[in-house]
Design goal:
The complex is a heterodimer of chains A (248) and B (235). Chain A has 248 residues and is α/β, with parallel strands linked by helices. In chain A, 36% of the residues lie in helices and 27% in strands. In chain A, the strands form two sheets. In chain A, strands 7-8-9-3-10-11 form a six-stranded mixed beta sheet, with helices on both faces. In chain A, strands 2-1-4-5-6 form a five-stranded antiparallel beta sheet. In chain A, helix 3 packs parallel to helix 5 and helix 4 packs across helix 5. Chain A starts with a strand and ends with a helix. Chain B has a single domain, classed as MetI-like fold (Orthogonal Bundle). The longest helix of chain B is centred in the N-terminal third of the chain and has 40 residues. Classes of the chains: A alpha/beta (248), B mainly alpha (235). Chains A and B meet through helix 2, strand 7 and helix 3 of A and helix 5 and helix 6 of B.
């Protein structure tokens, strides 16, 4: 489904990614963990073109988003192909980034209508369905400022789902939320995992990662330090390094 | 008290000032209609990634904001005909310029439009730069094109944020129309000063002041309504 090879990325002199390779197969849930500054969010953002890689390659569903030529220069796909590839991926941000001037339903229908070309009725029906799915069917006409953080994040998930992405990315979806509210968002992600959606979740929630992810990638200092099934990585047999990271 | 206690003289004065009001409103209306959209284009040029676009626009804004409007009115009035004649004679496809004779009102409107577009542009730019990056990123991952992102997501939010500073400029514009008097445009302030110097009374100027105040009261009220209209959401 997704294959990233030897991805490198620097911000100025700071090398954030020092050659990261990872693969995600269809229906798999992969959690990326690691301390702040380990490059995990940057890696995720490189996968859906929110950041441009310096080198390496990313292939999604057999289509090349970026590849590196013989001179080591990263070459991105043409504009139209780029857009098509990126539409295969949905993204949920830490700070939701809902559109504040649109009500909840319109946040979910806007791209369906103006990007995918669905009819307004079709988009609204699907939007209502997704709102029910995330448990917010009564909030369709509200504006984002009227919702709690957890509700905003669930709307953001519905908004991403509305375009039927093949791969859903979460960038620390609960880091801006209170602990009690975190659960309502995690419940939605758990439900999506149950539907065997392909997902990559950058998270700090270790117990959640253990429970929901098939595989866990532990990043440290711009590289993948450890990788394995969630049981191997976070179960009782976890490594000394993971224990240290978890503050044990 | 030449006018205030003489009903007939007072009515004559009001008539005289409303006569000049036509040009005042003409300058005001055209400046709003032309400078608001032009300002947006200037703002986009100022933020262009291309230096060749950005730098000349930066220079243009510097000149417009850095020199007195009164000087710009003179400059347009006296230099524009020369420039038009030069272009019309030397560039065949611009020869139609030779047939146009800009009058004083047109010169004033041009000066106001290019001046106010620069101020509006900086207000737009401030509003656009205040948008958080997340809005662009969310739009990008949802597949919106750059144009769609600007029109559907950025601009509506920018408008809400800039209404107040724009209202400031619009109110200033009402009062600035008085500057057209320097190239002898027959607008309200000129009518008032003429009458004042003819009769040696300050009352016409006071009445002119009341006229400006009434116009700006209406504008303030209009902007209040507009701002309330955008109050349906908060950021």
């Amino acid at each position: 489904m997704l294959k990233a090879t030897n991805v490198t990325k620097s911000f100025g002199k700071l090398k954030v990614l020092k050659g990261v390779s990872a693969a995600v197969s269809r229906g798999e849930v992969v959690a990326i963990i690691g301390s702040s500054g380990s490059g995990k969010s940057t890696f995720l953002r490189c996968l859906n073109y929110l950041e441009k890689v310096d080198g390496g390659s990313v292939t999604i569903d057999g289509e090349s988003l970026v590849s590196t030529d013989a001179q080591g220069k990263a070459c991105y796909a043409q504009k139209e192909q780029l857009r098509r590839i990126c539409l295969k991926m949905g993204m949920v941000f830490q700070n939701y980034h809902l559109f504040p001037h649109m009500n909840v339903l319109r946040n979910i229908t806007e791209a369906q209508v103006h990007v995918l070309g669905r009819s307004k009725t079709q988009a609204a029906e699907y939007g209502a369905e997704l709102l029910t799915k995330v448990g917010l069917s009564d909030k369709a006409q509200q504006y984002p400022y009227q919702l709690s953080g957890g509700q905003c994040q669930r709307v953001a998930i519905a908004r991403a789902l509305a375009l039927d992405p093949e791969l859903l990315c979460f960038d620390e979806p609960t880091s801006a939320l209170d602990p009690q509210i975190t659960q309502e968002v995690l419940a939605v992600i758990r439900q999506l995992a149950g539907e065997h959606r392909t997902m990559i979740v950058v998270t700090h929630e270790m117990r959640f990662a253990l429970e929901v992810a098939d595989r866990v990638i532990f990043m440290e200092d711009g590289v993948i330090a450890e990788e394995g099934t969630s049981q191997e990585m976070l179960g009782s047999g976890r490594s000394e390094r993971i224990r240290r990271f978890m503050g044990e | 008290m030449r006018y205030f206690n003489d009903g007939e003289a007072f009515l004559k004065l009001i008539k005289l000032l409303t006569g000049g009001l036509g040009n005042t409103l003409l300058i005001f209306a055209w400046t709003i209609v032309l400078a608001l959209p032009l300002g947006l284009i200037v703002a986009l040029g100022r933020m262009s990634r291309r230096r060749i676009v950005r730098e000349p626009v930066r220079f243009y804004i510097l000149i417009m904001r850095g020199t007195p409007l009164i000087l710009q009115i003179f400059a347009v009035h006296f230099l524009l005909p020369i420039l038009m004649k030069f272009l019309g004679t030397n560039l065949p496809f611009l020869s139609f310029l030779l047939a146009i004779r800009p009058n004083r009102v047109n010169s004033t409107i041009i000066a106001f439009v290019i001046n106010y577009a620069a101020y509006f542009a900086e207000i737009y730019r401030g509003g656009i730069m205040a948008m958080e990056r997340g809005q662009y990123e969310a739009a990008q991952v949802l597949g919106f094109s750059r144009a769609q992102t600007f029109v559907r997501i950025i601009l509506p939010q920018v408008i809400k944020r800039i209404l107040l500073p724009i209202s400031n400029e619009v109110i200033t514009l009402v009062k600035d129309t008085a500057l057209a008097t320097v190239i002898a445009v027959a607008e309200m302030f000129r009518s008032a000063t003429n009458e004042a110097s003819r009769t040696g009374s300050i009352e016409p100027l006071i009445i002119a002041g009341v006229f400006y105040l009434i116009m700006n009261t209406i504008i303030t009220w209009l902007f209040d309504v507009l701002i309330r209209k955008f109050d349906y959401y908060k950021v």
